[in-house]
Amino acid sequence: MEADISTLYKSDFYQVLNFKCRCLDCKTSKPEYVESFSISFVRKGNFIFNVFRNSFDSHTGRILLTKPGYEHTVTHVHDIPDECTIIEFTGAFYHELYSRYKGDQFLSNEDIHSLQINTTPETEYLHHLLLSHIFFQQTDRLQIDLLILEIVEQTLDFLSYTEQNPLSDRFKRNHLTTVEQAKQYMMTNFSEDISLMDIASNCFVSTFHFSRIFKTFVGVSPHAFLLSVRLKNAEIMLKASSRPVTEIAFVSGFNSLAHFSATFNERFGYSPVKYREKFQ
Question: Which domain holds residue 189?
Answer without folding.
Answer: 171-278
